[in-house]
Amino acid sequence: MRKCKYCFFILPFFLHPGSFAQSPVLDNDSTCAGLNNTIGLYYSAIQSNAHLYNGRQYSGYNANYIGHPYFDTAVLQKGSIYYDGTLYNNILLQYDINKNEVITEKYGQELRLSLSNEKIDSFRILNNEFLKIIPDSNAGNIMEAGFYQRLYHGKTEVLVKRKKIIRDDPVTNGELKSRYIPVNNYYVRKNGAYIKVDNKKSLLKVFQDKNKELARYLKSKKLKYKKDPELTIEKAAAYYDLLTS
To answer: What is the DSSP string of 68-130?
Structure first.
């Protein structure tokens, strides 16, 4: 059973960080059996996740652009994804909101892959949940197909479509610089319909049966749409649900 001792030193180099908890291994029969079981689980997990890592190589961007095109941060973060009918947890993910692509890193390699949007139902990056929405074209819906972050979910629902566009700055000293500009579109789902919200007036119109109460509530909480549209819409929707519960 001496071979087991050497396996202990080799295995951590193959395990994905955070996938397994490694504890000290004693050189005895019972722990060697446990280690062999861990190795078996590891290979089983890789085999079951293999088709998650068969996307096309992610192309990236011009490094001279100011900022980054990703949701929240330019680094991969731990998340989960419902992909091709299977839920994967503890997966490193990144959401490119300029190209509308979900990125992962191929296991054991510093190679980023773009996952197939057609196979993605939803994903979560840390505590941020994204849903794929495909509006019914016959209903004349104002929303475009794509991934929407769900900010609030109750009787009503608040969603945001996040984008980043590339904009050129004025030429300075003969040098052209470009930067990523965030563009967010907000929607409230009420009575099965999605309604776009782009100012306080349109927000109160969504909840017109309780708009006076909501106006007083927002004022009492010092919530201003122009200052913080996301928090204002979330709080308005939650308060409306409370009023109508």
So the answer is: -SBSS-SS-EEEEEEETTEEEEEEEEEEETTTTEEEEE-TTSS-EEEPPGGGEEEEEETTEEE
